[in-house]
Amino acid sequence: MSTPATIVRPGEPDLPAVYSSVESEVRSYCRNWPATMAHAQGSWVTDVSGRRYLDFFAGAGALNYGHNNPILKQPLLDYLSSDMIVHSLDMATEAKTRFLETFERLILRPRGLDYKVQFPGPTGANTVEAALKLARKVTGRESIISFTNAFHGMTLGALSVTGNSMKRAGAGIPLVHATPMPYDNYFGGVTEDFHWFERVLDDSGSGLNRPAAVIVETVQGEGGLNVARVEWLRGLAELCQRREILLIVDDVQMGCGRTGPFFSFEEAGIVPDIVTLSKSISGYGLPMALTLFRRQLDVWTPGEHNGTFRGHNPAFVTAAKALETYWETETFVEDTLAKGRRVRERLVGIAGNHPGVTARGRGMAQGLKFEDAAVAGAAAGAAFERGLLVETSGPADEVIKLLPPLTTSEEDLDSGIDILAEAIAVTVA
Amino acid sequence: MSTPATIVRPGEPDLPAVYSSVESEVRSYCRNWPATMAHAQGSWVTDVSGRRYLDFFAGAGALNYGHNNPILKQPLLDYLSSDMIVHSLDMATEAKTRFLETFERLILRPRGLDYKVQFPGPTGANTVEAALKLARKVTGRESIISFTNAFHGMTLGALSVTGNSMKRAGAGIPLVHATPMPYDNYFGGVTEDFHWFERVLDDSGSGLNRPAAVIVETVQGEGGLNVARVEWLRGLAELCQRREILLIVDDVQMGCGRTGPFFSFEEAGIVPDIVTLSKSISGYGLPMALTLFRRQLDVWTPGEHNGTFRGHNPAFVTAAKALETYWETETFVEDTLAKGRRVRERLVGIAGNHPGVTARGRGMAQGLKFEDAAVAGAAAGAAFERGLLVETSGPADEVIKLLPPLTTSEEDLDSGIDILAEAIAVTVA
Amino acid sequence: MSTPATIVRPGEPDLPAVYSSVESEVRSYCRNWPATMAHAQGSWVTDVSGRRYLDFFAGAGALNYGHNNPILKQPLLDYLSSDMIVHSLDMATEAKTRFLETFERLILRPRGLDYKVQFPGPTGANTVEAALKLARKVTGRESIISFTNAFHGMTLGALSVTGNSMKRAGAGIPLVHATPMPYDNYFGGVTEDFHWFERVLDDSGSGLNRPAAVIVETVQGEGGLNVARVEWLRGLAELCQRREILLIVDDVQMGCGRTGPFFSFEEAGIVPDIVTLSKSISGYGLPMALTLFRRQLDVWTPGEHNGTFRGHNPAFVTAAKALETYWETETFVEDTLAKGRRVRERLVGIAGNHPGVTARGRGMAQGLKFEDAAVAGAAAGAAFERGLLVETSGPADEVIKLLPPLTTSEEDLDSGIDILAEAIAVTVA
Amino acid sequence: MSTPATIVRPGEPDLPAVYSSVESEVRSYCRNWPATMAHAQGSWVTDVSGRRYLDFFAGAGALNYGHNNPILKQPLLDYLSSDMIVHSLDMATEAKTRFLETFERLILRPRGLDYKVQFPGPTGANTVEAALKLARKVTGRESIISFTNAFHGMTLGALSVTGNSMKRAGAGIPLVHATPMPYDNYFGGVTEDFHWFERVLDDSGSGLNRPAAVIVETVQGEGGLNVARVEWLRGLAELCQRREILLIVDDVQMGCGRTGPFFSFEEAGIVPDIVTLSKSISGYGLPMALTLFRRQLDVWTPGEHNGTFRGHNPAFVTAAKALETYWETETFVEDTLAKGRRVRERLVGIAGNHPGVTARGRGMAQGLKFEDAAVAGAAAGAAFERGLLVETSGPADEVIKLLPPLTTSEEDLDSGIDILAEAIAVTVA
Question: What pLDDT is attached to residue A12?
């Protein structure tokens, strides 16, 4: 979802005229990938000319189970065909009941998470907004601590805790009530963890407004695949608990198994106060989002946060089926971790061949960081020309970020990385 | 989407336990309508017990063409069955191309609207946020004028221009940069239009921050079916133009034909600078939203406002089909207006039988206002028990609001109103 | 203190070079009155060339007892000569004790005002800031209601409740947490008092943030000598009381007898929750300010609001002496009211001779409003050339405002008004 | 000006009743020093009982030339006796001309400072507010960088850049548009200077709003006598210049010779963009303040920032005389530095006798920091009982701060420190 700042193209000659004549200049991906997509299956997308692309982008993390996963597709078609209710706001429906029961049975209960579940509207920004509102309501404080290079969304509340200066400028008003703190390893390991954060919290003369909450991604996808160490996350959780600050983990991109376990924070053994989920929760790329929070924090008044598309039943159908399919056993987690290691090894190899390139990531969120950001952009462009969809992220778009579907076969993983290796090689040559 | 303040129920004994044990207290509609919905067709919903409900609520305006409209359903099933791409962010896709071309051909061009189209994320709040950001960016000003009893959404930017104090309190921070002005007829016709607004705009000593934009609904649905007269809307548009303030019409609920014409502002003959659409734009209750604005205002940087679910192709498919089906000719507009008159006549009749009750609305957004708000709530409850879904709105939930699908047959309209009449009669008896 | 927008002069050729070479462009009065002042006595000022000016400006209301009043001067000289302590922060001093006891004995007790007294720093802006902070702390709410054309000061909190758009622009940040309401007679008497204000307060859907306090001037001096009727003030006080909103009367310019009684609100028979005083409270033009509030509102923590110049003992000395001299009996009030009537009669006469000119004011705050603002400015300039200091005020500087010392003799009042009449006559001729 | 949190006293039994019955609970110094002051001369204050106090507090830095300095007193008495104008807003006066010319001749010109001079209202908070407004107006940015444990004043703009949490809470609204950075040595020298500040400035993804200005004290008096090294100040100035951020030095307490040179930043050889002065600028404890800024930054519109007490002529008289008396030659600077060394040596000696006590300060702003804050408060109380006025500062009031008049004799300096040593000895015993 980064800005295509580094890939300058002369227009979209291959796209229908309506894109340049009618769609707003804000359009972004169609500029980098000037093809009209038609079909999609698993890790593959086909454009109208029949050209096939291996998709290591996967809806920016919204397609962890691949495009049009047939296991999820059938119940979706059955549901729609039989005229089961599609749109229901927050009424009770069979599909919603089944999703809630499945989510509790397969996700919450086995992990000992005594969370309530809110349907805050079907996007990541909606769930982040709900999380921030709830944290402020519960604590009676206004300020939120965010982290450098965080990404949480484009609505005003979510944008105020987002780092990217170009996107922040889009707000048109000063974004306040949020203070950035250094993310793990921001200073290359030189500086002790939290020494600035803890010091200003404990110093009554520091001038820092006492925060309601900390919002953190365990791995910053849009921020350039920055990975927080588990000990850093534990330290952060302990810091929040000691000082009665709520900990919000934004798991919109890294949740639903992207890093291996269902929640990306499981590896650290922490229990956030509030968790946001979206992107891959429906499993089929359908809009859906959840806000989870400790039962004691459920101070909402009925209807205090509402929205028209909270009851998107087709998404509940595929979401429940995805949970039943992939999360009954540990197999999926193990497969993801194994695939992640495989990808990582290959990336380390590529990095070894190119000075100024380093591998980074966790689980199946892996990538390469380029000292020269222009190379990252050019290599991503060369990959597209070779049939691989990968995007850049990071403040200077200096990181090629791989988010392949978790269901991608080992062969396809290898093929994609072969293409990437070649794209980098021709770029730096 | 109002708060069910007036209908107090002892719990949700008829709902599966997971709703009270796992879903957040914020849930709302399932409290008033404690049934688990299963099937839906046109204007009818059936619960798991086989009980049928005539739906005069229609997804809070998201189902103008009825539930699971078969004309839209078939292309949706075809699209999904054939593995056409479902999730595509803002890449070009066949479905998106067809939607854009159809929208331009059937909606923009015939109305002489030289608008650009933004896909801001698939909800009403997303499009309102995009509209406010753009207005601020274009003008370099921060302040927005909203109206008493406005409803624009739950995210921070949208909430700041929303009137409802309970929902505003949910923000947990002071909501600033917005100033409310009196909506049309706020003082019962006693006060001249805009005399306060114009005076403070023109008085350099008034203390009003010069606004970037005015955001207005032509009919306030959530605010209690308050209808702005066309001359008031024209006066507002002229006022904005003279003073170089952008006019945003939030047509999320009243657009897509709810009041007759596609855009609710057409009757007034005005051309807003920015228009928001969502709810019924997909035609099938699928999450989708658009932000439209005059071509000259398209100052967005690529990617400056983004989001994961901007490319929800199933919604594009049904949206294009809905436009082709209902908006090629004037028939649908005429039918809607005729049905609206029919409903209005019946409501005037009911109001005539009950002191303290008055009819209000425009097109197929009609309702009854009760001097005693408790009666409105109780009557809505009695209607539910008789198989009719209607909700209350207004600051005290004093208005029963009818938003039947525009495709509802005359017979069903009559039946529904018969039920409503009876529900009111037993309530006041 | 208005901006000299209407009097354009070619520079300050008569002033020492250091004013244009070293003093900031923000300087203002020395542009309209390009003379270097040397001596001052009572209602007269003499410049370095020996030219005398009759001063109907009186330090913008800071010199109600005239320049260098000999009754106050002697104790001031005695105090300084005998090395009594001059600067003492908020330590106890003899001068402070005497002032507090005198203020309680002559001002608070006779009027039945059970107020606590805060020394917030020695300027009007300081006391307004203290008043707003206290109101917010007491109520836990952030929003303040101000009035059109209000003037309360230049610091950030005071500026946010000030109307003038040029001065507001000086803030460089959006001024929030304040909403303007129409001052009395803002619509020429056509609109019922408070109908907008009360309606938005009582309407839970209005979108108005519930205010902590209302801040009001009983007569808006800088705003153009707008006079609130006593019944309007009473209505406002009752409105605040019914809705538990604190009422702050900013009496910085109109207090200390300017309108007759010591507090300008006495005529209305209301008891504000908080009162600000400054300008003439020291009696000698020395910096001093007070914040008064009902005893129950004194929730300050020791030192929570501090400042270096809260213990300006020379000001306490002259302040106590001024109270003892002028406020033991009713004579001073009666004299002021009589003089005010005299001035008003003459102004009504002048207005009668000139179409488009009207008289306005209360007590000894009187003036003339010109339909053509340029005439007001030119006439003030012509008055200066004839030896009379008067300033313009109002959003367009369309009002000539007379604030003569209350001690001005009847002869001087007549002379000054003769000059003004001539200045207007030559201007409009 | 710190909060007397650590010295709890049973009331003010020795003060006249009017202090507890009428003055607000916000009163502070009179609680710690429960004596009614009468006379004052040089470094000595005498209370009504005839008891004498050696004053090492000096009006919190407002009395650098001592109480009622006879050299300044005579021209003040002459001015007042001869009825020269006292109050003049920003008209030209003889006293103001002389002050401006003297300030330019003795302060600005010899230091090569091409500054314009603004009279922003007579307090430190007023000048800080003017500085912040100007910085925002010039840059078009809103955000300000402040430092941990900064103190800049109690009005809303000044308070937002102040660190103390108790004082911030007094605002009653969230204080925004300011971000604290670590002051020099905040981490005990472990962390490299500015590494956090520079990193977030340069990282376009950091989430830090690009600041208009940095506001800094070269020595934080209220913050606990934290001394910034000259190399840190130089680094800060270079950082600001490279990134086009304005540098504001708040010299309200440390200016006018407190650290030796007239401006405290001279030692570092830097030239701030904006400088604030107040406290000792009048030389006699009379309210007065200046805002100085580079000529190119003088973008004020006439009257855009105004105020009633900007023309406090008695203060101009003593200010000019103080400059002529003390700042024609280098003698005063050298004396101050010598006295500062003398005080420092003694404090180092005391610290050597008491574990957990360290000496700190610069020039004649010297003090002792106590690991056990309670000891600092108790020792200050014991000093008062022995006839020495010293206050505590720092976030926990853990520092005894000495700000003796710069004119204090060496004998008095020694006597005062003898008392302090004894007070500490009896406290820790």
Answer: 63
